[in-house]
Amino acid sequence: MNPSGCEWVVEAQGCNEAALRDPALLRNLFQSLIDGMLLHAVEPPVWHQFPGAGGITGLCLLAESHLACHTFPEYRSLCLNVFCCRIRDDFDFAACLKKAFGASDVRVRKLERPYGQPWN
């Protein structure tokens, strides 16, 4: 068995603009992902809220790698990235983002990240 990790790149469109500016909703999102995917935060997440009508950027260092998000209220979109150092079960990103942020469309790309395998 070749060891490998897994990365999810998630784009949510048609989100509620106010929700994309709400730090509490994003903290809850991160906690839902950490709990639901059995991840382990090394430190509390770090957040940056852009001034005015801007969005929020968040990053959480995980024992498994990282969790990051960027919100764009002006485009009604949220971008999410979860990278884990080992394969794990999928998470229902679509249901979570539709419920918390009112997303009308959620696209998930899952990438296997092989370690130490030669490129042929």
Written account of the structure:
The protein is of the alpha+beta class and 120 residues long. The chain contains 2 helices and 6 strands; from the N terminus they run βαββββαβ. A hairpin with a 4-residue loop joins strand 4 (65-72) and strand 5 (77-84). The mean pLDDT is 93.
Secondary structure: elements and pairs:
Blueprint: E1 4-13, H1 23-36, E2 46-49, E3 56-61, E4 65-72, E5 77-84, H2 93-101, E6 105-114
Antiparallel strand pairs: 1-5, 1-6, 2-3, 3-4, 4-5
Give short descriptive properties of this protein.
120 residues; S-adenosylmethionine decarboxylase; globular; 19% helix; 6-stranded antiparallel sheet; alpha+beta
CATH class division: Alpha Beta
Q: Biggest sheet, in brief?
A: 6 strands, antiparallel
Described by the principal axes of the CA atoms, the overall outline is globular
| CATH fold naming | S-adenosylmethionine decarboxylase
Give the strand order of the largest sheet, numbering strands 1, 2, ... along the chain. Answer: 2-3-4-5-1-6
The CATH architecture would be 4-Layer Sandwich
Task: Report, as a whole number of angstroms, the end-to-end distance.
Answer: 18 Å
